[in-house]
Amino acid sequence: MSPRILGAPFITAASILLGCNFPTELPIRYETEHLEIGTEFDDSLFCRGDLLELERRVARTEDELEFTLKETYTVYVWSDESWGSGAAKNCGPGDALGCTRKSRATIWTTRFSLEHELVHAVIGKSRLHPFFEEGLAEVYGGGQTRFGQSAPSANSSTDRASADVQTAAHFLRWLRERWGPHYLALLARTEDGFDDFEAVYGMSINAAEQLYFAEAPYAYAAFDDCDAGDLAAADIADRWVDQIELDCDAGADTLNAGDGIIVHRSLNISEAGYYSVMTDGEWFDIYRCGARFEDVPGPDSWADDVPSSHAGYPSSAYRHYLGAEVHHLFFEVGRHDIGVGILGHGQGVANVAIWPSLAPTPEDSE
Amino acid sequence: MNCRSILLLTALVHGCSGADAAPRLDQVGDPCRGDRGYQCIDEHTVLRCEDDVLVMTDCGQVCANLGPAWTTSSCDEYECVCVPTDPLSCWPGEVNCVSEEVLQQCSDSQLWEAMECVQLCAAKGLISAGCNEQVDPLTGDHRADCWCSGEDTPCAPGTPPICVDKVSIASCVDGSWLFQDCTDLCAGPGQCVPWQQPATCEC
User: With an 8 Å Cβ cutoff, are A362 and B159 in contact?
Assistant: First the structure.
């Protein structure tokens, strides 16, 4: 089923009170194959590209963890303000930013936690230890992972609120990269995860974590780092010229970006140096991608002209530049992501060009 | 029901917890990543990550590893504070512009070393555009650099023009890049349009 952005809902109230003194439901504004999504936002919280991306997350979780999401889930996405002023009461006291009630096939969440909660929906009723269950939700939620504060095995006595989810996510991502997702699928079906770890992996969790500490990188990139289509190359090497169509309702790669919409493209820089970048869109965002990051980012690396995605956490780093100006930016060698945005939630076209800079730029004196 | 507990809200979340959190990896010998300070033990000793293991290190050694001009001052929270041996001399790595064309940099032995921007740029096949000092608007760091330009540098004959900036264009003429203002080419207001192939001044 192709995702649908519904018209103005019949119920226009921002929320619905159902016998409680806090809002429990929201008007349904979007439908996808697996989801009916209610939001309190008048403007488009989701463009077609966002809805397709949510379905891709569901599909990836289904494929890799070998589950099937059979029922249609109702998803209520609240603003951070509404969450803090009452909507969070739909969840338990330990549910910081979202929760999934599998018995009612319903998710209450903020936008930040939506992808995480979708993984819980796909996994369904589980007896897994929260360390593994929350870790899987983080991994397949798609964000980057990095070393946490504790050893995986030391979390066997933790509960949902005290488990070191950062460690869980990085450990599970390492297991995925090391042995593939099928073993995670097996682990996800166990009673606890800790007790059954050796039966799945053929080694104790203590032995596995010794390997993890020896082999795992500082960070793994988000699943969607640089998965956008290629920026069109110009006729000459190391130049790119593209005309990008943005369409919130119909564009398969158009994403919501707050007050505007954005489309991402990827490009490969083969020679480090200054490149000039310009768009006639409202802005562009840019960062360098990776798969695994061995080194800790420098203290100010988030402020680089074109930062590595792992210079930010939990959200990946990027730099934001206004359109209608030529920006001379230093690029390292590697794959990069550029997102070009326009204001509003309609449609439009934005040109973008990148070329080796001839303009005066600062040169390293080293 | 599943919850999303994030680091920012650990205080809130842990307030509801019935189980203790797992012990932190903060003891000598614990695994770690990176090469950062982790925690000051006392004013001269830091727990830091070296070769992926937490070790206790004397700040004097940490600072000495930076170069001969560095000595330890103290340990502040989680990092050794290193200062130059001679407090009256420059700080190694410090840079500034001493003239429009000369950059000076403080060496590892706390001596100012001057560099001609013309020479620095020529070594990279570029033309000097002078020495410039500025404050990074994001980090607040002061920086000084020789700026180098591609104007009058060699180009392969037949290379199509490219924009220099919003209002000027570079054309490959007789084997070198010629910069021209769009206002001159247009005999009036004009802007360089980089997504046209080849780039042109739009009048």
Answer: no
